[in-house]
Each structure stands twice: as structure tokens, then as C-alpha cells.
## 1
Amino acid sequence: MKKIYQIQIALKNFKPKIWRRILVPSDVSLSDFHKIIQTTMGWTNTHLHQFYKNGKHYMEQMEEDYMWDDRNQFDYIAMQLSDLLRYENEKISYEYDFGDGWNHEIVLEKILPFDDKEEYPVCIKGKMNCPLEDCGGVWGYADLLEVLKNPKHKEYEKLVDWIGDEHFDPEHFDKDEVNELLREKNYGCWEL
């Protein structure tokens, strides 16, 4: 029987908390779940990523990956989200961009019955804007926000030019925008 997972995705090591609450089918592929995370959080899917749980890393194995370690790395290409999350309050981690190290905690908050009137995936709540790509992880992002508060800072003009918008709002989150983006994409889980 099809089930729906209520998932919370939260960026680790940053305050105020940057998070999203989504509903996804339990049988969504990990590959598609990665893309759903990218869309709901606001990332651009331009860096490597992995899921991890109990010391095991789950990612797509690249051809001729000479660093692959079969003892604790597993190709997730045929895996579903329900292979890693089965019970309410169970957690996994997700890392995006190994250089900046955007680490996320993913919690299976609730297991819900499938509702054929709902379109999945769907974002039902969230807080705060996604950090900017390539800004140096949570510490670089915190520094960037401090500079943006002070137009007299020596790095201000350079950062505004890099961002392309001096009105970047770290508190902005629009659930409707996120859901519109989710509807535009096809993650293989619209029709259940």
C-alpha cells in the first residue's frame, strides 16, 4: 500500500534554522529525492551529494571512480527513500557540495495514508532562504550576511556584485514558489 512520508529537511549548524517540511511518496527513488531536496531547499544541483546513515554513504557511483570504497559506499541508483527511512522519527543525513559541506538532517516525522487528491511532492511549510551556492558553507554564509548588513564594509560592494542583488533577504521563504517549481519538474512520483 502506498504511503506518504512527512519529512523535515533542516540545514545543520546554522541559526536561525533553515528548514522545509515536505510530503513525498515513500517509494520515491533516492535520486529523485535528492532532486526534490534541491528544489525545496533552493539549491541549484551543481555539486556532488550523498546520503548517509549508520556510517554508510549512499550516492550515485560515477564511472571510473577510483576512490570508491565498497565497504561503506553504496550506489543508490536502484534505492528508494523507504530503504533508508522506515519508522517515524528515524533520521538520515544528506550532504550537498563536499567543498562547502552543506549538511542536512532529514527526519521522517509522520507516515501518512496516500491521498489521491494531493499532488506529490509538496512543500507544506518552511523557514528562511536557502544560502547562496559557493559562499563557503555555513560559516561563509554567516560572514556574508554580516557584510550585507553594513554597506560601509570594505567587502560590501564586491559581495553585492557577486550576488547580483543587494536586497538578498535571508528570511525570504515562499511555499507557493517552491510548490510551483516542484510542479514544473518531474521526479517520477506524480502518478502513484
Note: The two ends are 10 Å apart (CA to CA).
## 2
Amino acid sequence: MNRSIRSAVVVVIAATAPWCALAQADANSEKIFNGYALHQLTAAGLLYNAKAKATYHKALGPLVKQPWLAKLDGPSNEYRPVKVAGADYMLGSTCKNHDCQNNTIVLLWSGAQNVVYGKVVQRGKSTLIGSPPPAVAAELEKLWKTEFRRAN
């Protein structure tokens, strides 16, 4: 009886393998961040992939000199998929350690497009990074409010 059960398991696994491969083909869900998919990581996880890190640091421009932005090492949630202006992105956010009220960032990353867009708020001053198109910029404002200005 054990032999027939093992055979059935092999057939089921073999039958589902192509579907699993297709599901993992999306660039935003590939395990290219130290063996993890980005949705399994917090904000700093973006920096585990050299290409994503370079894209992010380029998008930051002169803000890359701010250690909390360069390292994304503040408190954050895991990335999650979102659709913005008809394109798929991973949404991440974090804030500056010990100063979350005044220093925050919300990020959109697309592996398929190799772009990072974001909104940084430092002591009330808002800066868009990555030159987002107008529709994406408008959505970044909404996403930032959702992430950081929740009603208690």
C-alpha cells in the first residue's frame, strides 16, 4: 500500500511542477534577494540584490548621503504587491530609527521595469525619488498617507 501512495504523490508533484514554475516567473516574486522573494523581506531587503540596490541608490540622488535612507534599517513591514497606474510593483516602507514621526519613506519597486519610485518625508519636507510619472506620483501620496497617517 505504501508503494501506491508514493506513486500517487510523485504524479501529483509532477503534474503541478510546470504551474509552480509559471507562478514564480514574475520578476517581483523571484527569490533574488539572498534566496528570498521580496515579499518575504522588510524594507532593507531591497538592498540584498545588487541591481535593485543600485537602482534605489540612483533614485535617491543626493539623499543617499542620509544613512537611514541608504540602509533602510528602520522599522518596517514586509513588501507587498500593489498595482499602480496599471503596472505591478512591490510596496515597501520604513522610517528613521528613533524618529519615525518625522522621517519616513514609501517605496515602489518593479523588477520587470527595473525602477524604484518613492516619497521621502523628512521633518515635513516631501521629496519624490526616481522621477515617477504623474499617475505614480499621485498614488505615492495616497500610499504614504495609508502607511504613515493611519487613524488611531
Note: The mean pLDDT is 84.
## 3
Amino acid sequence: MLLICNCYVKPLSSKEEQILYLRKDLYQHIVKNSKDNLIVKIGANERKLKIQPLYDDEFDIILEWHDDVLMDLKEYFLFLYDEINQKIHIGPIITMIMNIPEGTDLKLNAYLPFSYEMATFCRKHGGLFSIMPVASFLKGETSAFVYNEEKNNWVLQPIPAPNFIYNRIHSRKIEGSQHFKNACLSWKEQGSSIYNESFLSKYDIYQVLKEHPSLKNHLPDTSFGLQLLEEMLQEHNDLFIKYDHGSQGRRLIRVFIQEDQTFHLQQNSFSKKPQYTYQNYKELEKQIHAWCKTRDYIVQETIPLVDFDGKKLDFRFLCHLSKEDWSISSIVARVAANNQFVSNVDQGGEMKKPLSVLSHLFSEHEAKQIMNDMRKLAALTCSEISTSYSGGFAELGIDIGVDINGKPWIIEVNSKPSKQNYLSKTAIRPSVKALIRFFYQNWVERGKE
């Protein structure tokens, strides 16, 4: 039995008896096949409770529950009755962890449109979505922001321990700390599943993908560190230098040799001056080493990709896991801002409809074929990464460029893709639906185990 129910989770003192009240038809169905006491699980918390019929027009379920953290929730949840194991599941509870310093006003958070859509879709289809500050996650506290429709605001309050934790922390320092690793282990021991647990190394991804026979020919030549910089520059004439753990198009350097054999450099993060010219390699090398003081940089061949009206162009494929298969949820063409050599929206890039852009550059038949090739490449890339890495990836962003012959090239893989890459400003975005449906599928399957 699976259905959506209007549920009130009512906090109790430790002296009061815990009871699950069910509307009369649910109660009658369940007592025919079970005892008066059942295991009841809300989120990752479970207890053995007495069940009683409910005579209340406002709610389908009232759960009177003891907890160290008192909960007071009125939400629409999915209700799953597992007759074989004599267990009732109420959920799912989904939380997104983010870098939210204490006292921060959520109204200013760039993720609020996406979060509002997640909360709205959850409430409509059953379940609870919340935003958990990283401080709460690290302390093991079930305290998160829940959207309150009456107040039209996000309210910090206790929640049940979540079934699913969706990691959107944008701090490699936090993720790399032992404190974070210990917290992940602790939440998993409580029964929570963590998805997109960590950032991905650009060079590690390259090494994984180049071993796949269908992917290796769609990857630019890449090396780790700056040791082969001069050799690769002589071979390819045009290179990108990228911070191995960089994101949002930052800390990028492009170097190329001009026809007069001078060395030209473009950068977007190290100084106010965007372009430099050097008469010899030694001058160029000295500047690059001054900026790239750590060894955590990769050097990558620049592929001569097609542009759009003289501006850099690539395509962002947002992909989601559905059971064991990866599917494409959305695609946008990203056109760089004037005088920019990256197309990221965070760097001023503009989003356009992909097939329209491709049809501007190729014939209609070629555009459709290129789009199909890119789709296959993005899905295969996700599949290879998810089988090669731990960390429970449910969502990946794949950036693909196209050369003048229509061949697609894998530019980058993002384990925490931007939520700004969406064209519509009104409809609930496909990535929201895909993520929540993935969590729903997992929640139902686990409830039937």
C-alpha cells in the first residue's frame, strides 16, 4: 500500500505514550493484517508504536512521537505499509546540506529558487524537503530550514533524521576534513544515504574516462602538473591550464603561440589585467609559476571548437540517475560573454536553446545528429563515472563542446552542477523532478525490502 497522506508529527514528552493514529479506512486495512503494535519509520528514525483509529477531518495521520529533538511538522508524506515485515514507512525526508553561516538570511541565497521548487514538488507528491546548514550536519543535529507556506519563508526547525542527504557544500576544505568524513559515517550509521558526497578531481576523471574505448577519443590531451607545459605547448600550440579542483570557470589560464612566435596568455582570476604577451617561453613560464604556486593544476590541449557569433560556446547536459540508468534531464547551450574565454553562467555566459544554436552552425540534419551524439556521450560519461567512483552520485553536469567537423568533446564533469543553467523562470525544472523521483524510487524500494 502506497499513498499520499496529510500527516501531523506531534511532539510528546517522554512520559506520554507514543501512538500512530490512522484515518479509519487505513486503520481497518492494517489491523486486518497486523498486530496493534507496528514498527513505524519516519525518515531514518523508527520505533515500535501502538496504532489507533483517527477521527479527525484535517489529517490522515497523526504521529505522536518521542524524540530528543521535538518535532512539530504538518506535511504531506508518502505512506507505505509493508505487510510482510509489519512496518509502516512515512517519508521520504530529503535534506540539502549547504554552506550557510549561522545568522545568514536565506532570502539572499542563490539556491532559493531551486530549493523552493524542490519543496513545492515534494509537498505536492508527498515528502519533506529542507536545507540543512553544514554546521548542523557536522554536529549531527537534525535542524534544517523548512519552507513554511503560511509565512512564505524558510524557518529553521527540527526535522526527522533524513532518508536522503544531498550534498551541495561548495568547500573542498570542509569536504576534505576528518570532521566531515566522520559526520558522513555517523549519518550513514543512522540510516541516511548521502548523495554527491564529494567534488571530483579533473585529472582523476580524465584517467577514468580515457580507459573507456568509446570515450578516449573525445578527450583533450591532458597532463597533471606543469612539468610538461613547454612540451605540450610546442605540440599543440594552444593550451588551457586549469586548477584541478576548480569550479564555476575560475582559476583558468589559456596560453597559445601566435604567428610571430610570441606567447599570448589569457586569464580570469589572477589579476585585473586579462591578457599578456611574452617574447619568450621563460617569461611566460615565470608568470604561470607565480600564479600557480601549488602543483594542483592540469594542462590540457585546447580543442578548436565552434563558436557562436564569435563567442565561446559549449553545451551543459544535466544528467540524473534513475535506478541503474542515467538520463538527460535538461540541455542548454552556453554562450560566453564578450571578451570571455569561458562560457560559464557564473562568468557572465548566456543560455540558449541548444538545437537552435546548432542549426545556426550546421545543417538541420547535422544539428540533430550532433545533438544525438552528445546525448549518448553525456549518458555514457555519467555511467562510467558512477561505476568507477564511490560517493553515490545521483546528479552530474557534463560540459561538451563541438568542433568544426561536428565531433563532440568532453570538456568537464561537474559533481555539483550549477542551478543557474535553466532557461524557464516559471515551471518546475526537470532536474528537480528527476532528483526527487530518484529519491522516491529508492525510498519505496527500501521500504519493500
Note: The CA atoms of residues 239 and 302 lie 5 Å apart.
